[in-house]
Design brief:
single chain, 8-stranded mixed β-sheet, about 25% strand
Length: about 240
């Protein structure tokens, strides 16, 4: 997964605008591809910020305290989404893991995703256990970051398996580089790693960053203050040119 592998930790020892009278309710997105298109760009930006903050420090989790630490000086509150088994290649949601006896306080994001799955009959988020792969952990991490409004996700690999965590902390926001040129760094990586509609994904990404969008079937122009981004697509919505 390229740069995303940095956020796969190996343990060395262990919105739509509201009108003046009514608030528009967004239509739920019911596919993995649709959720990746909606949240992928901004989630990868957050991963870059988080990676810069934690550096190459090893991780350590304290379930009682509900924290994950990196090195001696960085500690963040965590939410456990679930665990992945390397041997069986299966995913198990935290709320379905009866043996772990996790505190309810660190399962809130997992339960929030379950509610989304229950409300919209979305199997990925409601089925307790299913076949999975390590690459799909990144997909689930991006979806969780978006739906739960988290600042990052982290894959804490402990040898026999891996925990998928979400992290929300103001220090991650403080290192955020919300700059114009970052789109040209993040978006090509997004579309190289996931099979999604490029035009839909770029539109969602730029709208999240506050750009005004004008587009045709094969072009997209985004404007924010004096910054302009132009993109061109082929007839299959694949990106052919991106300029800032």
């Amino acid at each position: 997964m390229g740069f995303l592998d940095k956020l796969f930790g190996k343990n060395n020892t262990k919105n739509a605008e509201a009108s003046t009278t009514t608030k528009e309710v967004p239509t739920p997105i019911l596919t993995e591809e649709g959720l990746l298109e909606q949240y992928g760009g901004i989630a990868l930006e957050k991963q870059l910020d988080f990676g810069e903050l934690i550096g190459d420090n090893n991780w350590n989790v304290d379930m009682t305290a509900g924290t994950i630490s990196f090195g001696d000086s960085l500690s963040f509150p965590l939410q456990v989404l679930g665990t992945f088994s390397h041997s069986s290649e299966t995913w198990l949601w935290a709320w379905a893991n009866q043996q772990s006896d996790l505190p309810d306080s660190i399962q809130q994001n997992a339960l929030q995703l379950k509610k989304y799955g229950d409300d919209n009959d979305f199997g990925l988020l409601r089925n307790p256990r299913f076949d999975f792969s390590t690459n799909e952990l990144h997909i689930l991490g991006i979806i969780a970051t978006g739906l739960c409004h988290a600042d990052a996700y982290y894959i804490a690999d402990y040898g026999q398996g891996a925990m998928l965590l979400t992290i929300t902390d103001s220090r991650i926001k403080q290192v955020r580089h919300d700059i114009h040129d970052r789109v040209r760094v993040v978006f090509p990586q997004l579309i190289s790693q996931f099979e999604i509609d490029h035009q839909n994904a770029l539109r969602s990404y730029l709208r999240t960053k506050g750009y005004t969008i004008e587009e045709t079937k094969t072009t997209l122009t985004a404007t924010k203050d004096s910054d302009i981004i132009r993109a061109e697509f082929d007839d299959l919505s694949r990106l052919t040119n991106l300029q800032g």
